[in-house]
Write a structure and sequence with these properties.
Strand content: 5-15%
Helix content: 25-40%
Oligomer: single chain
Number of helices: 12
Order of helices and strands: HHEHEHEHEHEEEEEHHHEEEHHEH
Bound molecules: pyridoxal-5'-phosphate
Number of strands: 13
Radius of gyration: 21 Å
Structural class: alpha/beta
Distance between the termini: 32 Å
Strand order of the largest sheet: 1-9-8-5-4-2-3
């Protein structure tokens, strides 16, 4: 995270906190007074409310992070060594960390140049005997077209696990992301649309057997106290985070509306030379990130820095080209679209509490760059 001490920071949770301060601080005090800090009534309450917010009958299982949510989901489906999981190379590293945590092999699929999301036709070409899971990433708060993806999964007998870390609140044809596949995995990292005050994550499923398995997996595999029914891990959402999240969840629609409004202001204020990311038809995005595409990105960055404006690049290097994943054996040129996008994308500040004046400053800075460099 970039430091928030700029004219326009990339992210700052404090204006959001100020809005709900009393309710959040009361909730925190109540937890501390309650005598229960792990897997108690607040986690239950939040899980119930979160599942309700998705408007799909099912169960939510709170875990320690978004990364763990993905790993626990894969493990619950029996995915492990020798299995292949199809995902995209332009995602956040944790998508791939989670696949590796269960010992499976990430197999990458290039992305659509307009939406930056998984190219489903190319996914079909990468399916092998070992493929077990399609793992679409709803990047930037946009939604992967789930109809063709589910159709592909059904045709090949594959599981679908959705990475919804950036899409809490996103709907596709009115249906929440995370409810299309067998398991939807969410993150409550502080910068996400529903951010905790530390780490947190959640798995959603409509299948109660899977939910039960994931509840055991997060707690050393225990069904009954101190008896492991299976081999598990330690990854729990704690009572303090759950209580905070429960307060913030009650205001999620407001938060989403604030993000939507900022995106609208950017759409209206961006100079015409600036290319935006295409939103999947039928999607109501959560606007986790507002992303633009530019050539001459270094010049734009200089301009933003000069104007005291924060920015992000999500992400600067596709995972198949990172030193830590050299062992997967990929090379430059394997995923040309993801590689080109990595050099052109830039995320602008987009979080509740950002003022219209600040958005205007960003637009002006980008326009100044565009006039000079993209004329
Ligand atoms: C944030 C993020 C994650 C991981 O979430 P954590 O809570 O940080 O573990 C996974 N996938 C994507 C796409 C993310 O943006």
């Amino acid at each position: 995270m970039t430091p928030p001490e700029l004219v326009v920071p990339m992210f700052d949770y404090r204006p959001g906190h100020a809005r709900y301060r009393d309710a959040i601080e009361t909730a925190m005090r109540d937890v501390i007074a309650s005598g229960l800090l792990i897997l108690g009534p607040r986690v239950n309450s939040f899980e119930g409310h979160f599942a309700e917010s998705l408007r799909m009958p099912g169960q939510a299982v709170g875990v320690g992070s978004g990364t763990d949510a993905l790993a626990i989901a894969l493990r619950a489906l029996g995915v492990g060594t020798g299995d292949e999981v199809l995902t995209v190379p332009n995602t956040a590293i944790p998508t791939v960390s989670a696949i590796r945590m269960v010992g499976a092999r990430p197999v990458f699929v290039d992305v659509d140049p307009d939406s930056c999301l998984m190219d489903i036709d190319q996914a079909a070409e990468r399916i092998t005997r070992r493929t077990r899971v399609l793992l679409p990433v709803h990047l930037f708060g946009n939604a992967v077209p789930m109809e063709p993806l589910l159709e592909l999964a059904t045709r090949h007998g594959l599981h679908v696990v959705e990475d919804c870390a950036q899409s809490t609140g996103t709907r596709l044809a009115g249906q929440a992301t995370g409810t299309f596949g067998r398991i939807g995995c969410f993150s409550f990292y502080p910068t996400k649309t529903l951010g905790a005050y530390g780490d947190g994550g959640l798995c959603f499923t409509t299948e109660s057997r899977l939910a039960e398995t994931m509840r055991q997996l997060r707690m050393y595999g225990c069904g009954r106290t101190y008896v492991a029914e299976r081999e598990g891990v330690c990854s729990r959402l704690d009572e303090l985070q759950a209580a905070i999240l429960d307060v913030k969840l009650a205001h999620l629609e407001e938060t989403l509306a604030a993000r939507r409004e900022i995106a609208r202001q950017y759409d209206a204020g961006m100079p015409t030379q600036i290319q935006r990311i295409a939103v999947t038809p039928g999607t109501d995005p959560a606007w986790q990130l507002y992303v633009i595409r530019v050539t001459r990105r270094e010049a734009l960055i200089s301009q933003l820095q000069e104007d005291g404006i924060g920015y992000g690049i999500h992400y600067p290097v596709p995972i198949h080209l990172m030193p830590g994943y050299e062992f997967l054996g990929y090379r430059v040129g394997d995923f040309p679209v993801a590689e080109r996008l990595a050099g052109e994308i830039l995320s602008l500040p987009c979080f509740p509490g950002l003022t219209p004046e600040q958005v205007q400053l960003v637009c002006r800075s980008v326009a100044y760059f565009a006039d000079r460099e993209l004329a």
